[in-house]
Amino acid sequence: MPKILIVGGGYAGFYTAWKLEKHLRKGEAEVTIVDPLPYMTYQPFLPEVAAGSIEARHSVVALRRHLKRTTVVTAKVTGIDHANKTATITPELGEPWQHEYDQIVVTAGAVSRTFPIPGIADNAIGLKTIEEAVAIRDRLMSNFDKAATLPAGPERERLLTVVVVGGGFAGIEVFAELRSFASALLKDYPQLTFDDTSFHLIEAMGRIMPEVSLKTSEWVLKDLATRGAYVHLDTQVKGAVDGNVELSTGETIPADLIIWTAGVMANPTVVRGGDLPVEERGRIRTRADLRVGTDEEIVEGAWAAGDVSAVPDLTGKGVGGYCVPNAQHAVRQAKLLAKNLTAVLRGEVPVDYIHHNLGAVAGLGLYNGVFQSKGIALKGFIAWLAHRGYHGMAMPSWERKIRVVWGWINNFFLGRDLVNLSTVQNPRYVFEEFAARPRPAQPEAAPAVTPPAVPREAGKAADAPEAVESDAKAAAAAR
Question: What is this structure's pTM?
Fold first, then answer.
């Protein structure tokens, strides 16, 4: 039975495995998926998770629950030797092992791409994982708690200042969602005012959201300005040391929360640890039919999809001729990949991937959004409904859809769930503080030392006890 190995359990990996279970007949192939995490994160929901609009657990999909006919391995793939069709699997505990396969599907996704800017690696946080989204939410709420106990001054201003780097869809969404979130928090903090909070977005280009028209992006800028947010265009971050964000304009912004959304890159652990062909931007070179290779040469038994792959955009609208890295392409590529892989196993011919962009939709906080599809642009509440409707349906499995939509209904009537769970990062802090500990062992006392008897010598002192007694006897005899 052919062995299929899927490297990565994100959008593309999960959907490939999910659709293979539907297309493959029982016993036709053995499918294994390997990912360091036991769940897939639906990344378009991360800005809303960071803003407390979606429960974190509802934006992830458990691999084992939904992939019933797939072997799920929670580990990393640290090496691919396609010449010998083996992959090195490294678990968190235990020794690495070699996994043999007949077909490999590389869907390891992307990670945040940063630059060697002083302080960014130590002080900023990305927005690619559910853990980062939760940490952002809890950090902002913790900062409100701290600021409420401080008098007006530089430290309080720093705690209430948020800087987002990157003006693409991810950056704009989290920026707008957090601005809306902060405004909602203020009603519970009478010590703080709207003017105490400060939100800055830094974008190196002369515009934001290149996925939409210039007119639509300008509307978003105006909307953000009316909400008290600052957008710095044609500006770069030069440093983020000691709580100070230094800009190329010479301005310095003291900020405690710095969110980096300025680009992604293909997962380097998988790409650099293998022998599959890689293009100049570090992605796996992929054909239009999603097999690894070029038009002239096919790497037999190797497939790729999603952000880790360089798939030609046959519509002619891709950046540099390739599909842009987003969820829309990743999901649709995965669905076709599962069909093509099944076809190849059955001796059939795979088909090319071609997908016309459905449009772009973004949430800008509760009841506000923007949507564009070709020449149609929607703004405000109707666009927000389109945003939620699209992503609610795109969430895999009805079980997940129901949880997400039910959470939205609860929030509509009850409001955001404004609970700070930052101490979850250190769940044992109370136990450790008050736990009884054994007393340190006391050193054993040294045994008492008896001074040695000193024999009487001729020159011994006259007041020694023996000498006094002898002198008294001699005096009595003389009398």
Answer: 0.87
